[in-house]
Structures are given as structure tokens and as C-alpha cells.
Amino acid sequence: MQRNSIKVSMAVVRRLPKYYRYLGDLIHNDVMRISSKELGKLMGLTASQIRQDLNCFGGFGQQGYGYNVIELQKEIGSILGLSKSYNCVIVGAGNLGQAIANYEGFKREGFILKAMFDVNPRLIGNTIRDIKILDILDLGEYVKSNDIQIGIICVPKEHSQSVADTLIENNVKAIWNFAPTDVSVPDNVVIENVAISESLYTLTYLMNEDSLNI
Ligand SMILES: NC(=O)c1ccc[n+]([C@@H]2O[C@H](COP(=O)([O-])OP(=O)(O)OC[C@H]3O[C@@H](n4cnc5c(N)ncnc54)[C@H](O)[C@@H]3O)[C@@H](O)[C@H]2O)c1
Q1: Are residues 27 and 61 in the same domain?
Q2: Which terminus of the chain is more solvent-facing, meaning fewer CB atoms within 10 Å of its CB: N or C?
Q3: Domain limits at 183?
Q4: Transcription regulation among the record's keywords (predicted)?
């Protein structure tokens, strides 16, 4: 595979995880080869959109033969950085932090949760599965000395920026932020703000769209 030198648009980047998931389902169902037309039908995209997207990375199919599903999923996984593993911490060991820690799938996918952090003395010292909840005061030192690459923020929004700042000061380069506020980060740090409520509000808009007078 030869990647094109132009910067890939965020719209394409945002579709890659979806390709990865659909191809995984096809593998699960023993489908070995698929045309861009068939894949497009499954994913709600046009065949030409699929070819355009994959061409950003040099293209993978052979005209007339379609895509080798296993190879394509492997390549997309590698483009997504899923062939590596990542050390992570969760900050905020409340409802959401614990739910994420309890999801075993992340470990299988290479996201290694090393520790959780909280301010609540009743939580500090507990474990969620085998993950220890540590004192927030130890966050900076811990991430610096344990090669933590991803910080997962699950604290109330008032505290998310200060948590992010501590992570960044101690060399964390990627933040997955669940607090409902946009956290600012310097250019050398990447962030994904996960707006669960916004997705829910989109759903309610769609439910009520017909009754809008616009
Ligand atoms: N639970 C959900 O389904 C959900 C959905 C969408 C968004 N969120 C957002 O995720 C965040 C967490 O939600 P939750 O439901 O888990 O809340 P929660 O109150 O159950 O947990 C928050 C935890 O953060 C800890 N905390 C507070 N300040 C801290 C700090 N400075 N450093 C370290 N820990 C600190 C608290 O002690 C608590 O244990 C919130 O910002 C919330 O708005 C949650």
C-alpha cells in the first residue's frame, strides 16, 4: 500500500472506524471478498465514495475483483493505529469512568488501562476489575513515569480543563474527553470531545422533525 502525500480530510478519517467495524462484521460472517458497490450498500455510501475514500491511502482493491476483506480490515486497522497498543488512564472514577473501566473490549483492542484517579477518598484505594483507583494528587507523577499515552477524562465539566492541563504537562499527547465542554489543548496534543448528549439531542430533533414549521 502506498499512501498519498496529501493530508486526508477529517470527513474520511471519521469514516475509517466505520469501515473497520463493517469489515469486522463481514469477517465474522465469513465474507472474504466484497465489491465497493456491495460495501457501499451495507454502509449507506456510494461505490464511488468508497473508492475515493480508500484511494486516499493508495487504494486497495483490484478493478473487477473487489476487496479482500481481511486484508482491507488489517490495513485500515493499521492506518487507524490499531496495530499498536496504548497505555491509558481514566480520571474520574464515577459512573462513566467505572463503566469504561468495566468494558473488556478496549483491552482486546490494545487500549491498556493502567490506573484510574479520583478526588473522592471513598473511591481511592478501590479497584475496578484489576484497575486501582489512585489519588488525583498522584496523577502527574504517575503519567510521567508510566508512559501513559491516552488520558480519559470523566470528571464534572468544571474540572476537565485542569485535569487536561495536568495530563499535558506530564507529556500525555492524546485526550478522550467525556465532560460536556470543549477542553483546549496545544497543537501537539490531539483531543476527541465525546458529546453523548449532543447525539441524543440529534435523535430528539429527528423524532420531532415532522412537526417543525420550517
Ligand atoms: N454517565 C454518563 O452516562 C455521562 C454521559 C455523558 C456525559 N457524562 C459526563 O462525564 C463526566 C462524568 O460523569 P459521571 O456520570 O461519571 O459523574 P460522577 O459524578 O458519577 O463521577 C465523576 C467523578 O469525578 C470525580 N472528580 C471530581 N472532580 C475531580 C477532579 N478534579 N479530579 C479527579 N476526579 C474528580 C468525582 O469524585 C466522581 O467520582 C461528567 O462530565 C458528565 O457530564 C456522563
Answers
A1: yes
A2: C
A3: 86-198
A4: yes
